[in-house]
Amino acid sequence: MDGAIRLERDGAVATVTMDRPAKHNALTLAMYEALGAAMRELSDDDTVRCVILRGAGERAFCAGSDIGDFDDTRSGVAQAKEYARRSNAAIRTIRDCPHPVVAAIGGICIGGGMEIASMCDLRIASDDSRFGLPAARLGLTVDYDELAMLVDLAGRRGALEILLEGHIFGAEEALRHRLVTRIVPRAELAAAVAATVERVTAGAPRVNRWHKAFVRRLEDPAPLDAAERDEAFACYDTEDYREGSRAFAEKRRPDFKGR
Q: Would strands 122-126 and 130-132 be described as parallel, antiparallel, or unpaired?
């Protein structure tokens, strides 16, 4: 297979790697679907506390969809719609993952790669990273599902700036557009991601999952019902709340069990 999605576990931390470095980790349709399968597997595993999403090699996080596949996979409207349905469904599994997802962005993060990164909860980028969505230069439009991913972070005006200029820009501009959480020197990327993961996993895992779900729910303009409001207090009946309270009083780090 030309390219793969690798899933590795180190205790409660899972790492998903887009592994096609010779092509800047550009994704084939099969890789999109493998990415979705990996994220669904992790979503169903309550022993996971954090997911790292990264690209193989030193040159790229992900260069997006493999343009070389387009003659076979996007030849005409019908094929393009099916490609978008399948690739967007895979990307949404990152957003829908109940566990915190951290993107480790080093190098190229363009097109679909930028959309993949935007679905992560935290996005740590090296200072030599490059970003962009040059769809107009290829004669392509960004469909509504993809566009929503960009507008959610960069806002309407920022999204239009990125799309209309179509240029490749650096990490500082990406930070201005809120496409990344923070920038670190390239040599410090791995350590910065590890430190972020350590902070995330120090928290109660059910609380992290609840907070992700609550923030997502607030995107829906429908009023919260009584059961939804009550869920925000369910933590007080958990073993982790009792452990956290004891640990605070005893001035020690809590040992959360996810219960």
A: unpaired
